[in-house]
Design goal:
Layout: E1 16-18, E2 24-27, H1 30-43, H2 48-54, H3 62-73, H4 80-88, H5 91-94, H6 98-111, H7 115-120
Antiparallel strand pairs: 1-2
């Protein structure tokens, strides 16, 4: 997974954060930027998704690889559907196209299958 070797920060120099497409978002103070980064780290512990978003032109199919790496790295006790629902709403994914849009769609698919609903459908043999 060479694409995901580092966890990029979405903060830019100064007091403004920028979305993936470069449009200026609202001004942030240092505390809210740190909270933003902590939230990303909590939801994407392996930085697989952040790694994809940091690429200017990710190759086709990388969204699926990033999603699989993300699912594998989620800690026990974290419902992938809940985490995917939160991530799909992130501004870094909302205005993006290409692989980022594909990733957003995949996260929305994952969010449709909460662990509680899946466990109710299992039968014991």
């Amino acid at each position: 997974m060479a694409y995901f070797d580092s966890a990029p920060s979405f903060a830019t120099r100064g007091s403004a954060a920028r979305s993936h497409d470069g449009d200026s978002m609202r001004a942030h103070d240092g505390d809210s930027l740190r909270a933003h980064d902590r939230d990303w780290a909590r939801l994407d512990p392996s930085a697989a998704l952040r790694g994809l978003l940091a690429l200017d032109d990710p190759p086709t199919g990388l969204a699926e690889d990033a999603l699989l790496g993300w699912l594998i790295a989620l800690p026990g006790g974290v419902d992938p559907a809940d985490a995917a629902r939160e991530l799909a709403k992130r501004p870094e994914l909302s205005a993006s196209g290409g692989e980022a849009a594909r990733l957003r769609d995949l996260l929305r698919d994952v969010s449709r299958y909460p662990a509680a609903a899946l466990s109710r459908g299992r039968r014991r043999r």
